[in-house]
Fold this sequence. Notes:
Low-confidence stretches of chain B: none
Largest interface: A-B, 55 and 50 residues
CATH class of the largest domain in chain A: Alpha Beta
Strand content of chain B: 35-45%
Structural class of chain A: alpha/beta
CATH superfamily of the largest domain in chain B: F0F1 ATP synthase delta/epsilon subunit, N-terminal
Largest sheet of chain B: 5 strands, mixed
CATH architecture of the largest domain in chain B: Sandwich
Helix content of chain A: 55-70%
Strand order of the largest sheet of chain A: 3-2-1-4-5
Number of helices of chain B: 2
Number of strands of chain A: 6
Order of helices and strands of chain B: EEEEEEEEEHH
Oligomer: heterodimer
Largest sheet of chain A: 5 strands, mixed
CATH class of the largest domain in chain B: Mainly Beta
Distance between the termini of chain A: 26 Å
CATH topology of the largest domain in chain B: ATP Synthase, domain 1
Low-confidence stretches of chain A: none
Number of domains of chain A: 2
Structural class of chain B: alpha+beta
Strand content of chain A: 5-15%
Strand order of the largest sheet of chain B: 2-1-9-8-5
CATH topology of the largest domain in chain A: Pyruvate Kinase, Chain: A, domain 1
Number of helices of chain A: 5
Amino acid sequence: MPGTKEIRAKITSVKSTQKITRAMQMVATSKMRRAQERMRAARPYADKMRSVIANLGAANPDYHSPFLQNRPTVGAIGIIVVSTDRGLAGALNANVFKQTLLLMREWQDKGAAAKLCLVGAKGMTFFRRLDTPIVANVSHLGDRPHVKDLIGTVKVMLDEYSDGTIDRLFLVGSEFVNTMTQRPVVTQLLPVAEPPAADLQEHWDYIYEPEAAQILDALLMRYIESQVYRAAVENVASEMAARMVAMKAATDNAGKLINEMQLIYNKARQAAITKELAEIVGGAAAV
Amino acid sequence: MAEPHTLQVEVVSAEGEIFSGLATMVFAPASQGDIGVAPRHAPLLSMLKPGEVRVQTPAGEELFFFVGGGAIEVQPHRVTVLADTALRAKDLDEAAALAAKQRAEEALKDRSSHVSQAEALAELARAAAQLKLIAKLRKVRG
Lengths: 287, 142
């Protein structure tokens, strides 16, 4: 029986691969749910922060935080790229990188070079092949990113902004639309794009401890950090969703492959039996 | 509108909502000394030091929350505590920033690191195995 043994071995091997992909799919599904919950949990903080900043801005129209001011000329931009640590997540990272490259090219045409800050190991493997300077990096945040792990990376970019080495700061990450769709999105972090409009019907001023300006800057910094945190959490949700879909496809493909090989195997086996029978019959007839 | 003798209190951190509910009194470690907030307090905005936020509920219970710093916003019938999840100090932040920079530099240095090489080899092996399988299937079918 030529080949049947090899086919059988191949079927076993594909089957065990299928087991792995199926397990990964299930793990991704449960992790995705938890990540979605964390996304939801992060929302109240950002909302509250926005409303406080809005009230503060309305009460202090004379103080212009550097974080809110649009600089007329843009000499360089900073981009925080949020990617995953591990692969096997479909085109998720590739889409984010493509978007980043587009953004970089767009600003390059306007004469602004880019500086990168990378969150996630995949971003590092991709962008270190380019000549773009990478000023900060954090990876292996795990499935539960924490704000404290991101503070450093964000601060590097905020410092660059305060020093004037970059004039805009962008954030590129994946938006979790639903399980099937994840979109790369670009958000402008600095200057804070549109200072949210306050409800001016009740106008009041606060008692400040310490200075209003100091508080506003501290709040804006935290607001930006919370946005990066949200992007990191959303990225985990997207990663898990993408992996779930990718692994489901892999499991299905493995199933198809097994069926196909099973058919070939059966045919080969049948052919061998028929041939043997024919030989026996032929031999009997000769006697 | 909330009842005149209560405060709507919200304690939130970037990683999740910690508390939301009514209170008769709130104590917080403001940057320039602890403060107590009763209903109809004048609007106040202050940074917080690390410490505990105490909330007295209308039911007479007292709840404690630890905050690693952050900010508190007081309006006559509303208190919002924006808590930091991590301890913040200037040098701590500075150190974290430095660490982030170093990581980038290190990762850039070992361009031909073993990890990426191993990754490439694994990819190559996978591609070769796939090619072999395809060839085999062709042979068997043909």
